[in-house]
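Subject: Sanity check before I submit

Could someone independently write out the structure tokens for this chain? I want to compare against mine line by line before I put it in a report. The sequence has 373 residues.
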Amino acid sequence: MTASAIYLHIGAPKTGTSFLQRMIWLNKEELRAQGFFFPPGSRRMQFDAVSDLRGGIWSENQLSATWDLVVERAHLNEGVAVISEELLCGSPPEVIERIVSSLAPIPVHVVHAARDFARQVPAEWQQWLRSRSTTTYEFYLDRLRDVPDQSFWQTQDPSKVYARWGPFLEPGHFHVLTVPPPGSDPSLLWQRFCSIVGFDPDVPHAPDGMQNPSLGLAEAELLRRFNVAIGDRFPMRDRYIRVVRDNLMRDALFSAPEPAKIGVPAPYVPWVRERSQQMVDDLAALAGEVDVVGSPEDLAANVVDAVRLPSELSDSELLDAAIAAWIRQHEVFEQRMDERDARRAEKAGQAGPPAPVSFPRRVRGAIARRLRG
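---
Independent answer below. Compare away.
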């Protein structure tokens, strides 16, 4: 008894991965009824198993699962196995070889989502900031343009990702999922993903709200300056996530009511358009080897010019944004305190009035003598 196939959804980061993962895990029982399973058993266990596989900062703490457990479950269950974890995207060839060989003879399919670079470039810079980076947007853009062998291209350019994964896969088993352009039906990405994996897209549950919100212009620059100021405090990975991401970012910076979007500055527009067209041409050259689901037109650069760079914001504007973020953070604190107080009041009401204090006879006698005394 073994899986008939396994689909590895490897990202790329910032291509709707969080949304697709939420759709999978919210509807896991319905998808299991369709004949799919998700080794080794939960979203967290998948992350930990790939962390074990990749090593480094991801595997520093105790993990709930290992890659060997994924392999064991894949070989002990019938149906189609599905793993969704973007840490897989940047795997080097030796790790990819281990993945595919450990799962043999199960046919391995890889799903890589791609989005136009005009949206991906600013999104990935923000992701860097959320991982403790202090890099300015201008420096980031210059390096992407001038140094072709950047980690960005190794995970975001599907032809470069295929160059690592392709030698270990059967032809047609590398699937490129194009992310629909802004304004598209929100369910279209899910429908395209389902057409690759084989899910029936008609499932009952959908996530509420944005799963991976973006930073605004001022909020991104505030985070970058914060990263500069903290020095070596709150090191990656867990401490920074627990202290900074789960408080400053989530409660303050991500909740700006109308954040100014970060786009592609005018001097970089020709390069982004040219680089996006190269991605489309490279995929066309891989016809027959790579299965493209969606439209190559989705990958054309949808350029939104930034009126200003983050570095052009005045200190006064940044101060106003910081105070507004601070207020939002304290509003969240207030809400949490109100919810805590309500839970305590409810618990106290369920417990009833406190029982009268009863002392042993010897103690009651000593108290009486002291009071008479």
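---
OP: Matches mine. For the report I'm noting this point. DSSP finds 15 helices and six strands in the chain.
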